[in-house]
Amino acid sequence: MRTECIVRCAIAASLGAVAVLAHAAGDTYQLDPFAQASAGFAGCPAVPPPLLSADEMRSQAHVRSERGLRCAMEGTCEPGGAYKRDPEINDRVKTAIASDPRFARASIWVTTSRKWVTLAGCVHTASERRALVGAVRALPGIERVFDETTIGAPKAKR
Fold first, then answer.
1. Distances (CA, A) of 79 to 30, 68, 102
2. pTM
């Protein structure tokens, strides 16, 4: 009985993890929530959403279902899987950054995957970067923060 419940929970988790957004410009898919939180840094290039090809999406769906099965068997994730709260977390992070005047001059994009938040874009100083990462880490429901921001606008590639 317990095994059947675990398998059902894992299947539900994998189905939830594969809620995708298909993009009209070709066969690309977006699995994780993505949003721009601030747009105050002139000259900061836009960060594209994390898009996957059809093959990459199928591979990710397999990996995500394995994670869902593991966390269901270990009892470490809620029903619905490790990815269930990602849209709500992404919205919370976006709102927190957008409403914080310390980041009004930054351009920040946010992606969330299984409670792991990735910050990308441009900030003006190292202290602004540290404050941004610290503010996001302090929000509830976040397990890890990855900082991919640059200090200053990135140099144009030749």
1. 23, 9, 37
2. 0.80
